[in-house]
Amino acid sequence: MNADFAEEKLRRYLDSSANYEESRPTRFDHHGQSDLAEPSNNFDKADTKFQGPVIKRKGRLLRAKRMREPFDMDAAIRDRLTTCGYTAKELETLKQTSKHSYTMQVREEEDTLHLLKGRFIEQETEILKQMYEDGCHPRVIADRLKRKQSSVIRKIKALAPYFQSHNHPVSFHGPQTLSPELEDSIFHARMSTIWEGLMEFPKTLQWEDTISAFPSEFWLEQIAQHTPRQVKSLLASHQPPDVALLESLGWSETSAAGVYAWILPSKCKPVCFDKQFHLLLGTTSQYGVGLRGTKDQLLSKWSSKRKDNPRSLVEGLNLSKHGKLVTLLEVPFKDDSHEETLRVRALVRLARAVFAIWLGAVRESSKPLIQKLVPWELEYIRYRGLASCKFLAFNLHDCKRK
Question: How far is residue 344 CA from its own chain's centroid?
């Protein structure tokens, strides 16, 4: 009985709605268009952004706006964690381990806890000083102190004078300047030791043939001949160079081939310690490009899309590209022949390997392999290197700008 009553009530409601539509007067808008007229397919240009399905409700024609795109939660979390200092590699790891949402939740809890903490106490300040002097990222320090990263960065900026006063290079006893003759003697002696150690590293058959084509004295003399005097003085010094001394070297705007050093600071501000700098050594051996063209390629905003470009490595480590480029070796081309290009390419690649070992500009995992070859104690080299020890384990002919 109740079902029949409900059905009858619904039928009466539909009949009354239909009668209302038939009996109500037709309304016209200010253009003389009836609200019962069929929709027109000719729309003005101003209406194109509202085009969508037409809906008829109680005789009135309404145009529905396009629905918004669905909310991308992963993209929102990724953007939020990027602002917290996570690198692209770290974000990829979080995504693969399905820890995006969990990490975001931890961040929100730390932000809430930060509002209750207030000012830094003395114990927190000492922990911050120690961790920052050890080269820890502010995000890591914030995790340790259970504080917001922005709060830690503000505290680091306030302590900048303290950090800068503790960044003086280690003082060594002995003469601060050497005569050119003594510098050349020390330079050749150290380079010979590094060369002997480099020849023990893994090499391809192509490199074996290339190096054995000339005696070792030939390669060493070529490297010494094309090394600027200022670089020789730096490498013959009784103490390792700091970042300020490396940045004092010059840059050659030339089309010649060569070896360059890129001194890269961390994107995290302020940068107060040499430990926050990375040293990247690279070469250029493409005829017509040279050091000038390589600099333009490194600083171009499109260069990071190339997998063989150092910019991809720089951005992956969250380093700033606004570092200092300096020249360590400059080798002009005699002609544009293929044989000359290969000769120059082999020379600059060998020189880069020697300089990378000499300056200790290798990754932490590779430092035990070069510890006996570096002329200084590795603990006194405060910047970080980016090179591996596979200097001669690649195909020379396939390498254009490396």
Answer: 30
Segment 174-197, tens digit of pLDDT? 666 778 889 999 999 999 999 999
> 334-339, long-range: CB within 8 Å, 24+ apart, which pairs?
336/287, 336/288
Over residues 132-138, mean pLDDT = 78
Q: Is 326 helix (H, G, I), strand (E, B) or coil?
A: strand
CA 185, CA 208: separation in Å to the nearest integer?
A: 28
User: Residue ranges per domain, the chain?
Assistant: 73-165, 180-385
Task: Give CA–CA dist 384/274, Å, rounded.
Answer: 8
User: 133-142, 260-269, 276-285 — which one is most confidently predicted on average?
Assistant: 276-285
Q: Is there a contact between 85 and 137 (Cβ–Cβ < 8 Å)?
A: yes
Q: Determine the Cα–Cα distance for residues 166 and 158; give it in Å rounded to an integer.
A: 15
Cα gap 373→201, rounded to integer Å:
12
310 — phi, psi (to 5°)? Answer: -60, -20
The stretches of 166-276 forming alpha helices (DSSP H) are 180-198, 205-212, 216-225, 229-235, 243-247
Q: Distance between CA atoms of 347 and 226, rounded to whole angstroms? A: 10
pLDDT at 295 over 50: yes
The DSSP bridge partners found for residue 60 are: 57
Strand partners, 28: 34
Express each pLDDT in 141-153 by its tens digit: 888 888 888 888 8
